[in-house]
Design a protein that fits this description.
Blueprint (H helix, E strand, L loop, with lengths): L1 H28 L1 H6 L6 H4 L12 E2 L4 E2 L15 H24 L6 H13 L4 H18 L5 H16 L16 E6 L6 H14 L4 E6 L4 H14 L2 E3 L7 H15 L3 E6 L6 H15 L7 E7 L4 H13 L4 E5 L9 H9 L3 E5 L7 E3 L2 H8 L3
Parallel strand pairs: 3-6, 3-7, 4-5, 4-6, 7-8, 8-9
Antiparallel strand pairs: 1-2, 9-10
Helix pairs in contact: 4-5, 4-14, 5-6, 6-7, 7-14, 8-9, 10-11, 12-13
This protein binds guanosine-5'-triphosphate and magnesium ion.
């Protein structure tokens, strides 16, 4: 009985010593945090902190090695309000047009020569002949109702209404970036230099900002730098990037990217494609093949055609060629920050019957905005 008590006392003493030692060690380990944060213990000392950073993983593809590195993960800017933030860039290059039109429309009498000047201004903004005539008709009607006493506000309202009707706020500009029980698949197409890879990277950021998990497919195997460029974008926001060997089959990379998306339970897979091949017919055939191969395992939900707004009518020709080969579901108009040809938004929608869904307004990582017709028109007639 006595010896049992002694054993119990020894055991209790040992436990006490170990506990004191453990507390002392823990204090010493946490000292830096406590010093930095004053007397308040850090949250990480109490609750394990969740990070959104994906674990690095290596997966084999059919054609090569899929790799993705996760370094410093950035938090991109939310999608909402981006066009508002960027509207000054749009305004900077297009306000001249808006102001020019307002000045012409505010003249005491709008004679035939003035209407011609209005027409010229609209055509120079790349609106296209059909939409230009339509706007002029709308303005004539609106201003006839107003009569001689046209207040500056009435003129501005008439122009705003006419432009808005042509930009068409009723079009569905929602991006199909989610699908039930599988990742949504988005293909990015367009000729070289229009901004496809940049747009793919910026779109990944936009989606991550909305809490989606994203897989990027580097299906531009035409040049090695393209995959490298996409990898950098992916790494910045912790998106998985699926790559293949240079000169490899782009359709295989796209297929692998979708497989990776399905395996990882990703929300969206975005496929960057090549903009240049040896022949134009070759490029269209290749895009068609990429799409067909993806469709062996998943629907393609969105085909976004990237057009450089500064290329004007040439962009429209490209749009026609692409839309004949792949079923374009939305347009991304890049470099709108560097042009006074904002009218291309209206012209290209008319040409393809497909809405502009995103606009690029700079080279910054978050300079891609969902297109909003009201914001856009307001920026044009601002001032
Ligand atoms: N100012 C401005 N520059 C842009 C915009 N979007 C893209 N760029 C620039 O356009 C250049 C070409 O962009 P990329 O994304 O490499 O074009 P790409 O279509 O992938 O080109 P290829 O891979 O050669 O077919 C880059 O210097 C981008 O920074 C934009 O909205 N505004
Ligand atoms: Mg590219």
């Amino acid at each position: 009985m006595d010896s049992a008590l002694v054993y119990a006392a020894i055991a209790a003493a040992v436990i006490l010593v170990l506990a004191v030692a453990a507390v002392a060690l823990r204090r010493r380990g946490g000292a830096a945090g406590i010093e930095q944060g004053g007397t308040t213990p850090r949250i990480s000392d109490v609750v394990p902190v969740e990070t959104s950073r994906p674990e690095p993983e290596l997966v084999e593809s059919r054609e090569g090695v899929l790799e993705f590195a996760v370094s410093e993960v950035e938090v991109p800017e939310p999608a909402a309000g981006r066009l508002h933030r960027l509207r000054t860039r749009l305004a900077r290059s297009n306000t001249a047009i808006g102001q020019g039109l307002l000045a012409l429309l505010s003249r005491d009498s709008i004679d035939a020569a003035t209407w011609e000047e209005i027409e010229e201004t609209l055509l120079l903004a790349d609106l296209g002949v059909g939409p230009t005539n339509e706007i002029i008709e709308r303005l004539r009607t609106a201003l006839r109702v107003e009569g001689g006493a046209r207040s500056p506000d009435a003129v501005k309202d008439a122009l705003r209404e006419a432009l808005l009707a042509l930009v068409d706020p009723s079009l569905d500009r929602e991006l199909a970036t989610t699908a039930p029980n599988r990742p949504a698949v988005v293909m990015i197409v367009g000729v070289n230099g229009t901004g496809k890879t940049t747009t793919t990277g910026k779109l990944a950021r936009l989606l991550v900002a909305e809490g989606r998990s994203v897989v990027l497919g580097a299906a531009d195997t035409f040049r090695a730098a393209a995959a490298e460029q996409l990898q950098t974008w992916g790494d910045r926001v912790g998106a998985v990037v699926v790559r293949g060997p240079e000169g490899g089959d782009p359709a295989a990379v796209a297929f692998d990217a979708v497989s990776a998306g399905v395996r990882d339970g990703a929300d969206t897979v975005v496929i960057d494609t090549a903009g240049r091949l040896h022949t134009k017919a070759g490029l269209m055939d290749e895009l068609d093949k990429v799409k067909r191969v993806i469709e062996k395992q998943s629907q393609v939900d969105e085909v976004l055609l990237v057009l450089d707004a500064t290329t004007g009518q040439n962009g429209l020709v490209q749009a026609r060629v692409f839309s004949e080969s792949v079923n374009v579901t939305g347009i991304v108009l890049t470099k709108l920050d560097g042009t006074a040809r904002g009218g291309i938004v209206i012209a290209v929608q008319r040409e393809l019957g497909v809405p502009v869904k995103l606009v690029g307004l700079g080279e910054g990582p978050d300079d891609l905005a969902p297109f909003d017709p009201v914001e856009f028109v307001d920026a044009l007639v601002a001032g």
